[in-house]
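Dear H.,

Thanks for agreeing to be a second pair of eyes. The structure we're designing against is below in token form, covering all 192 positions.
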């Protein structure tokens, strides 16, 4: 009996030290009908920076593609995206979620899963993890315009940033939405 109690106590201690899982969606973002740059420190209480991501309410934006899914039960859900016609010709079309190094708050995280789709046309996205500038891992995912949940590699722990690089669709490069895009609906991560 003592062994079982000790084993349970050890398992509970490991779980507490591992960090809490954080589910991030964008329902608390303001309703907007034009894409707006994502603010840093979203959600409140996190140390996340969102470089080159935009947020928008698809049910209000006339430029939303089929991958900006509107849930009939929640007509005005807000999503976050990178790419499409918002790619700058002078810069690459890349979004980054990162935690700057600050000793007073968590400074690393482990990505668990992401619910995402392509915004306008199916494309691939390469997600790369780094820990303080050191490569941790990379994976390429085929996206459709239907939101799906993708589990990220367990070996990606810890990281300080995730880089999302959507690949262009080469069938018709004259259309701006063919620049490639990624729409995020939710992110699950563990902070350390």
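And this is the sequence the design step returned. I haven't edited it by hand at all.
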């Amino acid at each position: 009996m003592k062994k079982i109690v000790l084993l349970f106590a050890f398992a509970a201690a490991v779980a507490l030290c591992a960090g809490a899982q954080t589910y991030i969606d964008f329902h608390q973002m303001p309703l907007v009908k034009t894409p707006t740059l994502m603010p840093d420190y979203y959600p409140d209480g996190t140390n996340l920076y969102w470089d080159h991501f935009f947020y928008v309410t698809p049910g209000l934006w006339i430029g939303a593609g089929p991958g900006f899914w509107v849930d009939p039960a929640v007509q005005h859900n807000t999503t976050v995206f990178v790419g499409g016609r918002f790619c700058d010709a002078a810069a690459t079309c890349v979004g980054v979620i990162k935690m700057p190094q600050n000793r007073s708050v968590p400074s690393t995280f482990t990505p668990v899963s992401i619910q995402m789709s392509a915004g306008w046309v199916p494309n691939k996205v390469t997600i790369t993890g780094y820990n303080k500038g050191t490569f941790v891992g990379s994976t390429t995912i085929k996206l459709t315009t239907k939101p799906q949940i993708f589990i990220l590699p367990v070996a990606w722990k810890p990281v300080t940033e995730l880089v999302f690089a959507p690949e262009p669709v080469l069938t018709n490069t004259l259309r701006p939405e063919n620049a490639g895009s990624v729409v995020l609906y939710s992110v699950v991560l563990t902070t350390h």
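Two observations from my side: The chain has one domain: 21-191. The chain has one helix and twelve strands.

Warmly,
E.
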